[in-house]
Amino acid sequence: HYRNSMPVLKENFLATLMNRKLPRDEVFEKAANYGIALSGNSYVVAVLSIDGIFISEEDSENRGDLSKSMSLKYSEDQALKYFALLNITEEIANKRGLGLVFMHHDQVVLLAARENPDQEAALQETMRVLEEIRQNVEKYLKFTLTVGVGSVMKDVTKISYSYEDAVLSLDYRL
């Protein structure tokens, strides 16, 4: 039963990490239990949100045809879009050794744990990978993203502050 519950427990732990400050010992103990690598000297959270699609008045009569097209861009299935976004983000983040990718509050969250103690360098490394993700999503999924990036934290217990910053920065989209 415990083994079956592991994915749910892992998701709950990650959600808690995003929403409140946890004691350092508890963070590392639970991370080890769930097979999550959280060692690092710099932590930054990014939240990836799919942009809305503007359909012109002329195209609104063809909405049905647009949603049946091969592109996810016009699909009304948000869950499918986020699943595809999650897959691309996970694939690139894993390839680049960036960190964890998971769903939280119907958005894709990337938690980058960097060994580099230089916060600016850690942020730049993360931004490069986020740009690669954005380009791949646009190229293969044919829709655009807005990415909110939080402040870089040196302390693993303060990841929730970076998440909060990332969510707040999404509100500044143009």
Give the structure's gist in a few sentences.
This protein has helices at 2-19, 24-33, 57-60, 63-67, 78-95, 119-141, 159-170; strands at residues 42-50, 99-104, 107-114, 145-149. By secondary structure, the protein is of the alpha+beta class.
What does this structure look like?
- With 174 residues, the protein is α+β, with helices and mostly antiparallel strands.
- It is built from seven helices and four strands; from the N terminus they run ααβαααββαβα.
- It has a four-stranded antiparallel β-sheet with strand order 2-3-1-4, with helices on both faces.
Low-confidence runs: none
The ordered H/E elements are: HHEHHHEEHEH
Global shape: globular
Compute the gyration radius: what is it?
Answer: 17 Å
The largest beta-sheet arranges its strands as: 2-3-1-4
Number of strands: 4
Strand-helix topology:
Elements: H1 2-19, H2 24-33, E1 42-50, H3 57-60, H4 63-67, H5 78-95, E2 99-104, E3 107-114, H6 119-141, E4 145-149, H7 159-170
Antiparallel strand pairs: 1-3, 1-4, 2-3
Q: Which key features would you list for this structure?
A:
single chain, 174 residues, alpha+beta, 4-stranded antiparallel sheet, 7 helices, 52% helix, 16% strand
